[in-house]
Design goal:
- This protein has one domain (4-101).
- The chain is built from four helices and no strands.
- The protein has helices at 4-18, 26-45, 64-72, 83-99.
- The longest helix has 20 residues, at 26-45.
- It starts with a helix and ends in a 15-residue tail after the last helix.
Length: 114
């Protein structure tokens, strides 16, 4: 389990990457960074890297914050999406963002322009 200083460091690193998206407001960047950090935490707590503890979590609906993050990231998703699937989709979008350097080709870039 990470201590508060490690979590803060992770958050600051994620936030610095999200802020590289042209035109993003600080408030939006903080919200997205928080959602990403939550998803990474869920992912890292699972031994096989999948946020599913085989007790019906595939049926638990996605959270409000997951849905908000997916909308901001311009991810199309079904209304009945589960927490697990939402987490996988967010993780995939974040992975694509990270591999694109400064986010030039990141699909969410236009979502943050105001």
């Amino acid at each position: 389990m990470k201590n508060l200083q490690q979590i803060r460091s992770d958050f600051e690193q994620i936030l610095s990457e999200v802020l590289k998206i042209s035109g993003i407001s600080v408030d939006s960047a903080v919200q997205i960074s928080s959602a990403i950090l939550q998803e990474f935490g869920k992912y890292n707590r699972c031994p096989d890297g999948i946020a599913d503890n085989n007790n019906g979590s595939e049926e638990v609906p996605a959270t409000f914050n997951q849905r908000k993050a997916m909308r901001n990231l311009k991810i199309s998703f079904p209304e009945a999406i589960s927490k697990v699937e939402a987490g996988r989709m967010i993780e995939s979008a974040v992975s694509k963002f990270s591999s694109n350097g400064r986010g030039r080709d990141f699909p969410a870039r236009s979502a943050f322009l105001k």
